[in-house]
Amino acid sequence: MTSWSLLLAGAWPGDVDRVVLEADPDGGVMGARYGLGVEPGVVSLLAAARRSVGEVPVSEHGRQCGDVWVVPGPETAEQARGVWGSGADALAATLAADTRLWIVDAGRLHAATPVFGLAAASALVVLVSGGRDEDLVQLPARVAALPVPTAVLINGRCSHETGELEAFTHALAVWRVDSVDDLPVVAGAVLAPGRSRRSWLWRQAVDVATAAAQLAVIGRPAERAEVDA
């Protein structure tokens, strides 16, 4: 979920540069939702990654929102799939060598998606799911398909206990957070320092981000996480 990508980036512990990369092959929403536009963005970032070696100059392709950099993706599925179909694997290698925290909003992550290579190069994947049984039933297969440490974030009311969910999904951890009707708006406001960072949602984001950061160190050296809608 795009909103939780932003929240986890803002709440991530430590003094680290944070970047949210919108890599949803079904099309992005950040540019329109937060008035950021999409150019420059993912398209220019992928082009730069092909040409250069070393750290990607995020300031040339992203927007700074509070203390988080956001790189918005193409808005339509046709554009997004065309871009990611040829660029995801190469970019994954570049990000794996980058010292910043990259949180990738990968949309509905599965083995056939063109951005699956980004997940395979990650230190940790966080799958975001609703709490209904019809949402949860898909999680064991999705966790099993991922070759890296994977956690699950349940957004909203759920009738099952956390331990039961961990046993069912075989995830490293399961976190449960409250559902918020206007989550995209709240997430955008929380990224700006101030009163919004004393909200209950922000405290939940801090708890999840702290736990995710601890799990990420058992994965690969670079600190990155992927968040799925």
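Next protein, fold it too.
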Amino acid sequence: MPRLTVRTVNLLDSAPLPPPEGRPWDAAFHLAAHSVPGISWNRDLVLENLSMTARVFDHLAEHARGCRAIYVSSAFVYAPKQGAVAEDDPTGSSHPYALSKLLGEAWVLSKKEHLQVFLVRSFNQIGPGMSPGLLIPDILARIRSGESPLLMRGRNDIRDFLDWRDAIDAYIQTLTVDAPSGRIWNLCSGRATPVSELVLEVLKAMSVEAEVLFANPNQETLVGNPARLMKDTGWFPRRSLSDTARAILEAPH
């Protein structure tokens, strides 16, 4: 088994990044970013996301030319659409988080002659071990406190939820796929799921009955088409929404 070396670096620092030890790197994933769309976004956060991405891909282009470099972008980059979005659909979200990812994509693609670059536009990933402050941990805490009805502060949006364990399987597949530099993939389930359905699956897994209400009656749809990723890699999501809900509840908390 290959030796695993863990290094911690500050991508917002000005200090040089560490070069490879021995042979150049074969592959790299770039996931570091401010990545919660619901936080208070400002210009500094947008530029910090771009700065981190630029440092990583400039460093790879200099020290690991030809490396397979995979940039994790976001489904939020797409312009609003009622149906499932595919990779060739227009981008154009006005959200600052989406802007930070679009700027990162542009920087990454500028390196595609020096690196094998791939963009993965990730949709909503959920599963066991999620950090406090995200939707599911917040819901679990409120259910366990006995809150009923559950008043959701946001909207009953239609989203594309994917178990993060399925996502890891997909990332592994991208390490060996034969595709041209600059290829873009949607990482998603292709399932259109209202937030209310996700909450009900969690309640069902807990054997709890509670009414679910939403403060905002408006609804937005963001669902992906994973056909290109499935065709290129042979990957497909194996876990259902109920599988994921049960795994979340079985995880230590």
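About the second fold: Helices lie at 43-63, 96-109, 135-144, 164-174, 195-205, 227-233, 241-250.
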